[in-house]
Amino acid sequence: MNQFDLTGKVAVVTGGGQGIGEGLAKNLASAGASVVGAARHQDRIDRVANEINDSGGTAVAVTTDVTDNSALVALAEAAVDTCGGLHVWVNNAGGSPVRTPLTELSDDDWDLCFRLNLTALWKASVIAAERMTDGGSIINISSPAGDRGVPGSGHYAAAKAGVNSLTKTMSLELAPSVRVNGISPGYVPTEVMMTALDTDEEQLEQLAQKRIPLGRLGTPDDMGSTAVYLASDAGSWMTGQTLIVAGGL
Question: 29, 95, 156, 204: which is the annotated catalytic residue?
Fold first, then answer.
């Protein structure tokens, strides 16, 4: 089990104030990492950081808009200056509340989606890799939408397909010092997902019982434990892969 130990490592989690991001932050902290939680809403990342610290872990919160390159640089520098280094970077911030056919999608909605879900991820990964002086692990949170057609969310699906491609290319360009992998979460009843799908947790539970082989919805902890594997020595021979964590769906 020592292979999963992240003691002495510093991990940044963007979008770390709720949902999957909260699960990522708390699981990395439980494995021993010092966690830097980043999001636009200070109150949310403060809550998560306080809960980690109260449970015996180490966490700080840094307000960050990932679409602002200078804010990403400041986030990376804060991790190094405050916690003493940078070893793990999780690109979790993303999503799109817009659901409309591509034929009706506005240019602004397209551009915003790609800026948040793909461009910010690219810039953050470059900024992080430059500061991973002792090697490290970059983890990109993708989506099953990136592997299929999704009527009404074609812009988001295209951006996540780009994330999957970027993960593969960066894993080759940054090897052997930095590993780059992804996690593609299935149905996890977060606020973001339920808003995007215009549904509620009860309806998702019904879907789980009918369609998901393992018979339940996912949880933020399911994604968090996967991130611990990818970030730790247990995953030291894993790079360029996007793991589908979706209960068999």
Answer: 156
